[in-house]
């Protein structure tokens, strides 16, 4: 269980979860009790095959548990149909994919603004704190140190490290309650990875967004307030 400040409602909660790929197979992931609260920063690590990616896919509703309950903001996502899970993701979750998944036919700026344009709740929150959607995009691109002369270029013209910053800024838009990051630094050298994690953690703290990051790299564990080796019980 998280040692963070206990609040009325976890951002994410798992109870008595078991996941199997088939009815005849053994569970690849079992979690009895886990909560993530607003503003917490979790780094989840473990050997290959320990279930890290499976856990992220369960949290986002891309996979359904064999047993147990997964709740996001108090709503059990395994009770929702596909369309409602899609809407929950769009309105409340940011995601940094391992390969970033930026849209090559959009500029950097348009990629970053996209989540707010697709979600009314995130657009509303954006305009509560910034003069415009564009102003928020500028804020996060600056916070993550992407040079201004890159902001209106194609993402195909960026280095891997710069694409990573764009993916991070996109995830932060509209103050999602939870951001999930799947090995976001795997293509970076140690120094660039540490710089990105430090800047991104600071950005999450700024708007009290919870962060769940999966990584094989244990060199920046000191930048997280919660660590979980997935082959052990959460604590």
Any overview of this molecule?
It is a single chain. It contains seven helices and nine strands. The protein has helices at 52-59, 82-92, 108-117, 120-129, 133-143, 160-172, 190-206, and strands at residues 12-19, 29-36, 41-45, 67-72, 75-76, 93-96, 178-182, 210-214, 226-229. The strands form two sheets. Strands 6-7-8-3-9 form a five-stranded parallel beta sheet, with helices on both faces. A four-stranded antiparallel beta sheet has the order 2-1-4-5, covered by helices on one side. Helix 5 (133-143) crosses helix 6 (160-172) and helix 6 (160-172) runs parallel beside helix 7. It starts with 11 loop residues before the first strand and ends in a 6-residue tail after the last strand. Mean pLDDT is 90; it is low at 1-6.
Any chance you could write out the topology, listing elements then pairs?
Elements: E1 12-19, E2 29-36, E3 41-45, H1 52-59, E4 67-72, E5 75-76, H2 82-92, E6 93-96, H3 108-117, H4 120-129, H5 133-143, H6 160-172, E7 178-182, H7 190-206, E8 210-214, E9 226-229
Parallel strand pairs: 3-8, 3-9, 6-7, 7-8
Antiparallel strand pairs: 1-2, 1-4, 4-5
Helix pairs in contact: 3-5, 3-6, 5-6, 6-7
């Amino acid at each position: 269980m998280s040692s963070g400040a206990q609040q009325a409602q976890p951002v994410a909660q798992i109870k008595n979860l078991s996941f199997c790929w088939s009815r005849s197979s053994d569970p690849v992931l079992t979690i009895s009790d886990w909560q993530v609260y607003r503003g917490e920063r979790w780094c989840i690590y473990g050997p290959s095959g320990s279930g890290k990616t499976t856990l992220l896919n369960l949290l986002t509703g891309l996979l359904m548990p064999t047993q147990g309950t997964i709740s996001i903001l108090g709503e059990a996502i395994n009770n929702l149909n596909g369309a409602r899970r899609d809407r929950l993701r769009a309105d409340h979750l940011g995601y940094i994919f391992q390969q970033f998944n930026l849209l090559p036919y959009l500029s950097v700026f348009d990629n970053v603004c996209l989540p707010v344009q697709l979600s009314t709740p995130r657009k509303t929150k954006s305009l509560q704190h910034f003069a415009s959607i564009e102003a928020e995009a500028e804020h996060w691109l600056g916070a993550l140190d992407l040079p201004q002369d890159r902001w209106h270029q194609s993402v195909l013209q960026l280095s891997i490290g710069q694409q990573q910053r764009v993916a991070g800024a996109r995830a932060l838009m509209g103050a999602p309650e939870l951001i999930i990051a799947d090995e976001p630094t795997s293509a970076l050298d140690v120094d660039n990875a540490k710089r990105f994690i430090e800047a991104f953690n600071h950005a999450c703290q700024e708007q009290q967004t919870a962060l769940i990051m999966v990584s094989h790299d244990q060199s920046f564990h000191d930048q997280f307030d919660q660590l979980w080796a997935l082959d052990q019980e959460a604590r």
